[in-house]
Amino acid sequence: xxxLSAPKKLSIARRYLSGLSYDEIxxxxxxxxxTVSNIVNELKAGxxxxxxxxxxxxxxxxxxxxxLKRAKLTPGQCAAGLMILTRIRECGLEPADIDRWPLxxxxxxxxxxxxxxxxxxxxxQEVQKRTGFNLDALDGKLHELxxxxxxxxxxxxxxxxxxxxxxxxxx
Length: 171
Prior knowledge:
By secondary structure, the chain is an all-alpha fold. It folds into three domains: 6-64; 72-132, no CATH class; 134-171. 75% of the residues lie in helices and 0% in strands. It has helices spanning 6-17, 22-29, 33-45, 55-70, 75-90, 101-107, 111-131, 135-170. Helix 5 packs parallel to helix 7 (111-131). The N and C termini lie far apart (103 Å).
């Protein structure tokens, strides 16, 4: 096997630190999965002298860590949030107000609450499939039905009044 150049190894290490899977790294670099694995193992073991050139990547990881601390989020909460966000997007939904997500993540204190949240997202998806409406259309339909219900309220009261009259006449 040919020895990989330092820039090629560094390229693989950067891609790994960027969160790419082994398969994605293989596809982008053209090296074997075993080679990727060996380089990642070298990196994890601290036997990767070229990491001095990876300062930018390391700094980005540090910034991410600091952002998590500032937001008072644990890695578990972030993982749960990413899982939820991914599932919401898979359901064809878009988070309308991204500023609320830290509050939502903090409110989901445990796995059961995450599951319940996802169950509700699945319910919305089922309604969308059944009706063919997106969220905006569903919201519009709800308002339309509420308006119609308000319009029918006087007729319902009138019907009840007539029913009472009929009952009294029948007696």
